[in-house]
Design goal:
Layout (H helix, E strand, L loop, with lengths): L1 H36 L3 H16 L6 H16 L3 H19 L4 H17 L2 H19 L4 H15 L4 H18 L5 H16 L3 H19 L1
Length: 227
């Protein structure tokens, strides 16, 4: 009887410890996100670095470790510290793949982040491979009409635009725009940016008449929003 009581007490203590650890990690992540949003990057780095150590208490392959590493990598990326960000994204990707397998939205998110990072570095072949894989996973898991697919299309289009590769970029932006127009309010920032990007790409392709229609639509939305 006493042994059962001891086991029960130990279980309660373990649960209480885990609960405290979870709360500490949650608090750290909220504080880090707040600092990141304010542009206080050194503070965000400090908080997220500490949060990584807190997350590792749950196990080195716990999903929370990957989440925290991704936030720390985002903080580096926001400052243009791409060399520092890449290994963190790679480590987060490996954890997600170990936990979820190859086809999961968390995996797609890290592939996307790495793809954007490679685009900013001018490593376009790697960027295309990663962003195409992220798009494929999202289409498979969410269906071809999901807004997350529109985001993946836009990121892949940005990779082509960075190389002045206008034709494939236009096709990707057209598809992304069709998805956003169906699902977003007319004055949504993502929709307006899509209109601007697509119009600019069409002008590069000497399709000025089509571009003018999109520009007029975007200008009308902005005018209406201000009134």
């Amino acid at each position: 009887m006493m042994r059962r009581s001891l086991i029960s007490c130990c279980a309660v203590l373990v649960l209480m410890s885990l609960s405290c650890g979870q709360q500490a990690w949650d608090d750290a992540m909220q504080a880090g996100d707040a600092a990141l949003q304010r542009g206080q990057y050194p503070e965000a780095e400090r908080i997220f670095t500490a949060a990584v150590h807190k997350a590792e208490e749950f196990g080195l392959h716990d999903r929370r470790v990957a989440v925290t590493l991704a936030h720390l990598a985002q903080t580096y990326s926001a400052q243009g510290k791409f060399v520092e960000a890449e290994p963190l994204y790679l480590e987060a990707l490996k954890i997600y793949q170990d936990v979820h397998g190859e086809n999961h939205l968390d995996v797609a998110a890290m592939l996307n982040n790495l793809g954007v990072l490679h685009r900013k570095h001018g490593q376009y072949a790697d960027a295309q491979r990663l962003l195409t894989r992220a798009l494929s996973i999202k289409e498979q898991l969410l269906g071809p009409d999901h807004l997350e697919v529109a985001l993946a299309l836009s990121n892949l289009a940005a990779m082509h635009l960075a190389q002045d590769d206008w034709e494939p970029a236009a096709k990707l932006l057209a598809r992304a725009l069709a998805l956003r127009e169906k699902q977003l309010r007319p004055d949504h920032p993502d929709l307006l940016k899509n209109l601007d990007d697509y119009a600019g790409t069409l002008r590069k392709l000497n399709r000025g008449t089509e571009a003018a229609v999109l520009e007029e639509k975007a200008n009308a939305i902005r005018t209406k929003s201000k009134s």
